[in-house]
Amino acid sequence: MCDDTISQKITELTNLILDDYSGGKTIDGSCPFDQPDKKVIIDIINKLQIIVFPGHFKNNTYKVYTRRSGLSMLLEDVMFNLKKQINLVLGFDEQYASLDEQARQDTAAQLALDFLGQIPKIREYIETDVSAGFDGDPAAFNKDEIIYSYPGLYAIFVNRIAHELFLLGVPMIPRIMTEHAHSLTGIDIHPGATIGKYFFIDHGTGIVIGETTEIGDNVKIYQGVTLGALSTRGGQSLRNKKRHPTIRDNVTIYSGASILGGDTVIGRDVVIGGNAFITKSIAAGAKVSIKNQELRYNYDSKHPVEQCEVDNDAAWFYII
Asked: What global pTM score does this model have?
């Protein structure tokens, strides 16, 4: 096919798609300059990581001579960019849509300052999460290894940031943050989830924690765990309703378990075995496991299929 023919086809396609843009589709959106910038938001996360872990992550953007000057520059950078991104997203929320530009800028600045004021709280919680990771994992060499390499801690760190913005009512940005962590770690924690201190995610891949989940202190969960809703068929009619479970203090949930429903409460000191499917509350101190698991062996055509039950001893369901 000659270049002239290709050029003609491109012109025709351009006109066709431009006509389609005028059809009023949701995906047409509005001016791209009025949208949040995901790259900037990720950069904010990276700078906050330096602020929260000053002894582990370095700032290579500025030449600094003291911890004070370095921290001041980072805070100014985060403040400037976060304020700008919040200003861009406020228009997506009805309660801010009627504000004029100056009022919206002032609101964005106050929200950014209010968030930065929560950094000591975030650091307090993260310190306990690092301790929980080290205390709960015999494979951990030291706490530095957890900070540098554990995807669970990174997902928790991003969630703690996003949750504070969520509590302040900042639209969109918290979800962009947690979905960034989700894409890197395979751990999906909604920024609305409330999570206590000493939270440990081991391995982590495939974990889902829904928006209205409430998690107490000293909770440990493993890969493939879902803390979800019983059903979302109601769609938007379920907005702002408690759809996800409550997990009390000192609970351990092993891999592949699903705990569903807003009325489901897992009591203190409960242990949930691997692959359990739970839709009702569990009393404090209980151990929940799947009974009478069945295995089949088929060696070859000369041997019959064998069938046996796994012994329901005290250890098998703690699937790591």
From this structure: 0.86
Other residues' Cβ atoms within 10 Å of the Cβ of residue 277? 11
CATH of domain 33-188: 1.10.3130.10
We find that the CATH architecture of domain 193-235+244-291 is: 3 Solenoid (2.160)
- State the Cα–Cα distance between residues 311 and 292, nearest whole angstrom: 8
In the chain, domain spans: 33-188, 193-235+244-291
Element (H, E) at 60: none
Read off the tokens for 176.
């962009």
**DSSP at 28:** G
Burial class (CB in 10 A: 0-12, 13-18, 19+), 88: buried
CA distances from 21 to 29, 32, 33, 134, 213 (A): 9, 14, 17, 53, 39
DSSP label of 51: H
Strand bridging mode 220-222 / 200-202: parallel
Among the listed residues 152, 164, 222, the one whose alpha carbon sits nearest the alpha carbon of residue 193: 164
pLDDT of 4-31, one tens digit each? 788 888 898 988 888 888 888 877 766 6
Phi, psi of 142 (to 5 degrees): -160, 180
Contact indicator for 132, 202 with CB cutoff of 8 Å: no
Tokens of 266: 């897992």
Query: pLDDT tens for residues 185-203?
Result: 999 999 999 999 999 999 9
Determine whether 87 is exposed, middle or buried from the number of CB atoms within 10 Å of its CB (0-12, 13-18, 19+): buried
**Token output for 213:** 């989940």
What is the Cα Rg of the chain in Å?
Answer: 24
